[in-house]
Amino acid sequence: MLNDLLEKAQTELDGARTKEQADLQNFQMLAQSLNDEIKFANKEKAEAAKSKSESEESKATATGDLDVTSKDLNNDISELAELHHNCMTKANDFEAETKSRAEELKALATAKKIIIEATSLAQTSFLQRSQISTRADLVNYEAVRFVHDLARKQHSTLLSQLASRLSSTVKFSTGSQADVFAKIKGLITDMVEKLEAEAEGDATEKAYCDKELAETNQKKSDKTSEIEKLTAKIDSMSAQSKQLKSEIATLQTELGQLTSSQAEMDKLRAEEKALFEANSAETEKGLNGVKLALKVLNEYYSKSDKAHGSADGAGSGIIGLLEVCESDFSKALTEMTAAEEAAQNQYDAQTKENEITKATKDQDVKYKTKESNGLDKGVAEYSSDKAGVETELSAVNEYLSQLEGRCIAKAETYGERKARREAEIAGLKEALTVLENETAFVQKSTRKLRVRRQ
Q: 3-class SS at 41?
């Protein structure tokens, strides 16, 4: 019995030590998990505060950029409307001028045809058609011929028209030679002033085109660079959000597996506990029966006033056998109880670990979902900003296309027009110089006439 009691005490001590060790291990694991959770939460808090500060700064910057960009867009729209109006006005003026010139050329061609048919002088020179009787006639003739040659050389319609008007003035003027001379000078002077005004207008247009093209190309470059930056941010944030969503899906899968594993553990633990309760109840019932039988036999054989001769030897054997049975039942019950407690402790420890793991993963899912939603919101905001900048870039490109059509896409470049006008103006000024220096011109013309006559 002492051995049984010692064995039972040792078994209970081992169970108590096992439980104590399991409880200590559970406590340490719980403390470690709580410390890790606190550390993780503090880190997440710091990162959230930092992210909030960066987001507020980015929002302030984006708001400022939006205000500036909106202001620029409004200015660009206003300038575009004004330029469109100017372009339409100039286009209408050019169309009207072209139509007027076409009508004038048509009228001149008709008049020329009538004159040729009426006089049959189409191939005669101005010298053959005119009767040069005075020095002024010679000067007028040479001025007209000079303008004709200049118009043919420069392929200028305006100079051709001027030469025709000069010829008509010389042929059909009824005033004095001084009046004819003054009219010719006036026509040439007016044409010089007109060409100079057109040259000045072209120079102004050239300066305007250079300025607008440079500014518009710079705006295009700025908007393109801004779109590239926004695209890079959107791609980066989208990739981060995609990665976070993948991690969230993995965590949710692991949480589902953890829940299934815990449910399976709960089911097995319930079955083991039910089996232990049934077996322990049966074992305890048998133990109590053996104890009761031993009590009855011990009480009986311990009596001294038995009325018959009892079989003490056989009774002692039965009692010894029952005591062995009692010991076996006690040992079996103790082992079953220890196994149940160990299984329960292991179940409790694993359950606690699963709870900690689940709480950690739940927090991970929570924070990662929040961060992913923030990134998605940022992507939406940057996408909206990008759409706005793309709209601005589209307007800039449209305006640039109009400018290029107005300033670049022309049959004759500004440099060619400038050189041609300068040549026309120089030639007309030379004609004026000839007219103003009658004496030298008459001498020169006289020599030319002599050469021609010879």
A: helix
- The first and second tokens of residue 404, run together, are 């290029």
CA separation for the pair 348, 356 (Å, rounded):
12
Give the alpha-carbon dihedral of 364, 365, 367, 371, to 10 degrees: 130
Is residue 209 a contact partner of residue 403, using CB atoms and an 8 Å limit? yes
Cβ-Cβ contacts under 8 Å for 77 (sequence gap 6 or more):
395
pLDDT value of residue 203: 73
Q: Which of 201-205, 336-340, 450-454 has the highest mean pLDDT?
A: 336-340
Q: Which two tokens stand for residue 118?
A: 């009426």
Residue 317 vs residues 18, 302, 310, 367: alpha-carbon distances, Å: 38, 15, 13, 74
Q: What distance lies between CA 239 and its chain's CA centroid?
A: 14
Encode pLDDT of 387-446 as tens digits. Answer: 998 998 899 888 888 887 777 645 445 566 666 666 666 666 666 665 565 534 444 444
Tell how far CA 127 is from the center of its chain: 76
**Comparison of pLDDT for 45 and 140, the residue scoring more:** 45
Residue 404 and residue 181 in contact, taking contact as beta carbons nearer than 8 Å: no
Residue pair 333/285 in contact (Cβ under 8 Å)? The answer is no
**Phi and psi (nearest 5°) for 437?**
-115, 65
Q: Are 377 and 62 in contact (CB under 8 A)?
A: no
Q: Identify the residue with better confidence: 282 or 436.
A: 282
83-100 per-position pLDDT tens digit = 778 778 877 777 777 776
Measured between alpha carbons, how far is residue 375 from residues 55, 244, 248, 317, 372 in Å?
10, 10, 14, 85, 5
User: What are the contacts of 176-183 at 24+ separation with CB within 8 A?
Assistant: 177/134, 177/136, 177/137, 178/136, 180/136, 180/140, 181/136, 181/139, 181/140, 181/435
Are 435 and 181 within 8 A, CB to CB?
yes
Size of the chain, expressed as the number of residues it contains: 454
Report yes or no: 290 and 298 within 8 Å, Cβ to Cβ.
no
132 pLDDT above the threshold of 80: no
